[in-house]
Amino acid sequence: MKPLITLLxxxxxxxxxxxxxxxxxxxxxxxxxxxYYVYVPAAYDxxxxxxxxxxxxxxxxxxxxxxxxxxxxxxxxxxNFILVLPDGTEFNNSGHWNVGGFTLGSTxxxxxxxDVMLDEIISNYTIxxxxxxxxxxxxxxxxxxxxxxxxxxxxxxIASVTGSMTPETYNDCNPQHPTxxxxxxxxxxMTVPYEGALWSKSIADVILYWRxxxxxxxxxxxxxxxxxxxxxxxxxxxxxxPGGDDGSAVSHIKVLGGGHTWPGSIxxxxxxxxxxxxxxxxxxxxxNYDINGVNPIISTETTYTTALKIYPNPVTDELFVETNQxxxxxxxxxxLIGNCLQEGYTTNRIDVSTLxxxxxxxxxxxxxxxxLKQ
Length: 374
Hints:
Helix content: 10-25%
Strand order of the largest sheet: 1-2-4-3-7-8-9-12-11-10
């Protein structure tokens, strides 16, 4: 994780962080002090029950790195959900979640820790207990599947990015209700092989397990993502299995040429797809569901994104911005390795004439847009 730590330091120095800091909590569980961090969104005032999104880090990582790498904070601010970033414990000198497989030998009861943690969060905040979701990167994705299998009475839906199910999770899975599942995975992932290994189920096995458990339609709907970032070396496609019990569905987003990375992340490591943002698409999937099935209030929920259009793209000198809000908008322009090159406020145009020809990421109104400068 050293490249990520270096990039985090760069971003901290450049002043990218404008959101409030997460609140640190500690609880005692099984004789251990366990830490977790709560990001309270700007829209939260305690008057309305709000969802929880738990975001679990990968093996060898921690809550701080995951907070930036698979970033949900801007989405939480406007969608109004509590973001929870737990820290794992050390196993072989690496932060981990005990899921079997590559963590065999660990004695940590992480499922029990999450159960107790949720109790404490619910006592401290105004929570919609029917809308608790779990996602994570790599080991955090494996752990999200474990929670769906062993703590399903509290989990409405899960999403895994570059994770899978270990044989232990797969063989001892006992979900108590139909569980919507999203699996995002690159077919060139060399860390968690797409085709599986002795210690990890194949992605096909995982998708078929949840398709069949939820009684979804046998044949998926197939959609190709628009290749908006042709220089990222990958494309994406979705296999969507609808029609499950209680309206549940299974979505598999396969990244062709994608590696062990979080799509859309500002940390543009090799193999990172930039055609979509995984955090954005995960929340759009989650918000469809509560623990009883299809969320009945979704049609009346306020969307967390502003209607926004930029043109021309490709651009030469000046980028025009159209939105449905007649206010000024704070923006930043990044290169593909996370350097902020330009920032400011605009009502309808951005001067990019001084930027050299290249592909850039424009952050504006909680959205990330690709801009090709000619």
